[in-house]
Amino acid sequence: MQRRAQREQPERAKRLTRVLVCAAAVPVMLVATGCSSDSGSDDGGGEKAASASASASPSPTVQAAAYRTLPEACGVLSKKTLKELAPKAKSGKEGSSDDVASRASCSWSSLDNNGVKGSQFRWLNVSLLRFESDTTRGPGDKLAQEYYDKQVREVRATPGAKSLSAQPLTGTGDVATAVRYDLKKKEGTFKQQTVVARVENVVVTLDYNGAGLAGDKTPDADDLMADARKAAKEAVLSVTRANGPGAASGSPSAPASGRPTATASEAPSASASGKS
Question: Which of 111, 137, 179, 269 is deepest in the core (most CB within 10 A)?
């Protein structure tokens, strides 16, 4: 029995040693875990600080567009003007638009039928396109100017146009161009007059053509152009009035909205060469 007890004493000592070693290891693991938790907390705080710093950076700004709306397209011309340019038109035909504050158009068709003596035809169209300022592409008036230039180029490149001429206009918005040409069709020779004007961030395109049909005389191009210029000036003035006094003061804007209200590719074509 004494020998057996002597043999068991070393075994008990070994087991006790292992227990003490394991017990000592537990606080070390807890300490390591605590350090790991502290490290994660530091990382989270760094991310929050970086996020707060990013949100505090100033947002890009751009000059606000002067005009925020458009007049009703079929109401931009007075009854007197319509009576002179399209005397037989009963009413204007409004063009389709998903946003009349950004793009709108109206047309009038007039046929003065004199039977065997022939007929006088007139067609009038007004298109309005408004551009909003954009932080990426620039202020609204700059975008409108780009579209204005594109419109003038397209009108001057009208297929089949004869005797074409173009000249700048004054007193019609900020910038304007009048283009005139002849188009020969089976019905007769159509005298086309197109005035493209920009006022602030809005582009106004007025098309006016006339023809003598069934043997009636061809209208005088100078008279048609005088009427077209008068109507274009009136349409531009309607845009200005629709936005109220002081609308074009150019006050600075808060951060601009994402994209322009309209782009050139979305706008109606200025050329009425296909109309009759």
Answer: 179
Same domain, yes or no: 138 and 256: yes
231: DSSP letter: H
Structure tokens at 204: 């106004």
> What proportions of the chain, in percent to the nearest 5, are helix, strand and coil?
40, 25, 35
pLDDT in tens, 75-84: 999 999 999 9
* Nearest-5° Cα angle at 273, 210 to 108: 50
Residues 125 and 222 both lie in one domain = yes
3-state secondary structure of 43: helix
In degrees and rounded to multiples of 5, residue 238 shows phi and psi of: -65, -35
Comparing C-alpha atoms, which of 48, 97, 2, 234 is closest to residue 40?
A: 48
Question: What does the pLDDT look like over 238-247, one tens digit per residue?
Answer: 999 999 876 6
Contacts (Cβ under 8 Å, ≥6 apart) of 258: 134, 135
Q: What percent of the chain has pLDDT over 90?
A: 62
Strand ranges across the sheet with 202-213: 93-94, 103-113, 119-130, 202-213, 188-199, 175-185, 162-169
- Please give the Cα distance from 232 to 207 (Å, whole number): 9
Quote the CA–CA distance of 260 and 256 in Å, as a whole number: 9
Residues 6+ apart with CB under 8 A from 129: 102, 103, 144, 147, 202, 203, 205, 262, 267, 268
Mean pLDDT across the stretch 254-263?
41
d(CA 232, CA 215): 30
Of 14, 31, 57, at which residue does a domain stop?
A: 57
Q: Which of 133, 125, 130 is nearest to 62 (CA)?
A: 133
- The answer to the question of residue 66 being in a domain is no
